[in-house]
Amino acid sequence: DAGVTQSPTHLIKTRGQQVTLRCSPISGHKSVSWYQQVLGQGPQFIFQYYEKEERGRGNFPDRFSARQFPNYSSELNVNALLLGDSALYLCASSLEGPFFDQPQHFGDGTRLSIL
Amino acid sequence: GQSLEQPSEVTAVEGAIVQINCTYQTSGFYGLSWYQQHDGGAPTFLSYNALDGLEETGRFSSFLSRSDSYGYLLLQELQMKDSASYFCAVHGGYQKVTFGTGTKLQVIP
Fold first, then answer.
1. pLDDT by position in tens, chain A (length 115)
2. Residue B93: exposed, middle, or buried by beta-carbon count in 10 A (0-12, 13-18, 19+)?
3. What is chain A's alpha carbon radius of gyration, rounded to the nearest angstrom?
4. Checking DSSP bridges between strand B29-37 and strand B84-92, what pairing results, if any?
5. What are phi and psi of B72, to 5 degrees?
C-alpha cells in the first residue's frame, strides 16, 4: 500500500509569491495534518483537517490556508511568501483525528526554499 | 499554551540501554507520542501513551506519568541504525499536536 505522498518534493520561490503544496493520505485515512519543520527544530503544527473540515489550527498567520477534498487529499497554500517560510513542510495522515489512539503517518515532505 | 522539554543530545554505546525524557506543560492533555526521524527523512511513529504506565513495542518502550507531566522513551539493545532524532509530542486541547525540539541520539560502537 502507498504511504503518504507529497508533491512537489522541492520548490524554490521568491518573496511575495504564492505556493500550493499537495498531499495524498494513506488509503482509508480521513485525517490530514500539516506541519512546518525548520532545520534543527521539531515539526510545528499548522492545520488539521478531518472529514473535509478544519478541526485544528496552529499559531500561523492568515497567509497560510488549507483545504481537504472529498477524496481526503489536501492542499496547503501559503501567500505572500517570506524568507522565514523556508522549511520542510510535512503532511501526516491518520485514520481519525490525531488525538485518538491513532498514529500519524508522515510523508517525506516538500522542501520549500524562498529566495 | 503548550511546551515540552527534552535533552538536546544523548550518546550511548551499541548494545546498551538509553532513556530519553520528556516533560511537558499543556492546557488540555490527551496523550504523548514519540517519533523517530533520521536526517533527511520523515518522522516515523514509535508509540502513543494516553494512560499512565509503560507501553512496550519490541526494543522500544514508552512511559507516561500524567500527574508528573512526564514521559520517557526507552531504547534497549541499541543498534547503530537507532542513531536519529527522537521527538516527544503532546496531543492537547483544540486538536493541536505539539512536538518537542528533539533529542539527537548518537550510538557509538
1. 679 999 999 999 999 999 999 999 999 999 999 999 998 899 999 999 988 899 888 899 999 999 999 999 999 999 999 999 999 999 999 887 655 567 789 999 999 999 9
2. middle
3. 13
4. antiparallel
5. -145, 155
CB atoms within 10 A of CB B26: 18
The rounded distance, in Å, linking the Cα atoms of A89 and A59 is 15
- Identify all chain A residues contacting B91, using CB atoms and an 8 Å cutoff: 98-99
Joined grid coordinates for residue B82: 537507532
Contacts of B101 in chain A (CB under 8 A): 41-42
| Measured distance CA(B73)–CA(B53) in Å, rounded | 12
Nearest-CB residue to B87 (from A33, A42, A109): A42
Cβ distance of B102 and A42 shorter than 8 Å: yes
Task: Identify residue A65 by its one-letter amino acid code.
Answer: S
Strands A110-114 and A10-13: parallel
Chain B contact set for A104 (CB, 8 A): 33, 45, 97
Detail the DSSP E strand segments found in chain A.
Answer: 5-7, 10-13, 19-24, 31-37, 44-50, 53-57, 64-68, 74-78, 87-94, 105-106, 110-114
Tell me if B35 sits within 8 A of B96, measured CB to CB. Answer: no
